[in-house]
Amino acid sequence: MTLNDSSTNSSFTCSTDAFKQVIYPIAYLLIFFLGSVGNSLSIYVFLQPSQRKTSVNIYMQNLAVSDLMFVSTLPFRATYYLLGSQWVFGDILCRIMTYTMYVNMYCSIYFLTVLSVVRFMAIVYPFKSWKVSNMKYAKIMCAVIWVFVLAASSPLLSKVIAGYKNPAKCLDLHPSSTHRLLMMNSFVLAVGFILPFCTIIICYIFAIRALLKSKTPQRKKAVCHKKALSTIIITLILFFLCFLPYHVLRTVYLVLGGCSPANLFVHKAQVVSLCLAATNSCLDPVLYYFAAENFKARIRTDVMLLHLYIHLPKASLEAKGIK
């Protein structure tokens, strides 16, 4: 979300609109393609009857659903910018676009944080982690996260914040809403980013400390520790790459306000940071591949079966002497 550039100084022509109309369509369509394929495949794997049902996989399945929900909105966003910032889908759908983006972002942050905590407990407190790794507890936690984020993001459905008198405008914020948005940003920054980010860093530090202190573990325990550490490290990378730049630049952007020669760079950087935040939706499947229970094995099995399906008829014909 960006402030409407119509609030700029008349002696300066703000060029962020042209910049957005180039960057956003390319980024959104690429993320849509990669995110749709990656998350659809991930959900397919998680829903397989043979797939092991664990609390970790439940959190990851909910994360994949959230990501798929978000990437499904990206063609609408790309179309808006391809049409020269002209919205043709109506006011209600416009507000839903904004709402869905932030629901996905903060659901992703909380699911990633809970995953890191579960993996941290498995390393540091293996005999006390039964509660956080319990299936029933995982389902309750997922429901709490969904309800909390859906409710906390509901102001973005308001016409005062995300609606427009001009029906052709969308995805930009009213300049008159800046003060209200700064107040909302302070709360969201603390609860939606800083608290989860600090939690993940603490999990990482104590997990590394516990692993350095432990003696050479048994093979099964070593595999568990590897998955746990992979979860925390990949999550930390996702936070540094996708969420940290966006939250820092969004705060600076809202403080600076309208576009001017002095802060034009910040406005353009904020556009790039929003693309990075959206990229999280197509990077999460990397986490599933390396850290989900039996996910890698299931993918390898399906690839092998597909390979046999494609090549076995040909091999059978060749065995019969038919070319």
TrEMBL record:
Sorted UniProt keywords: Cell membrane, Disulfide bond, G-protein coupled receptor, Membrane, Receptor, Transducer, Transmembrane, Transmembrane helix
Protein name: Cysteinyl leukotriene receptor 2
PROSITE patterns assigned: G_PROTEIN_RECEP_F1_2
Gene coding for it: CYSLTR2
Upper classification of the organism: Eukaryota, Metazoa, Chordata, Craniata, Vertebrata
Annotated Gene Ontology cellular component terms: plasma membrane
Main localization, broad class: membrane
Subcellular location(s) of the protein: Cell membrane
GO molecular function ontology, one term from the record: G protein-coupled receptor activity
Organism: Coturnix japonica
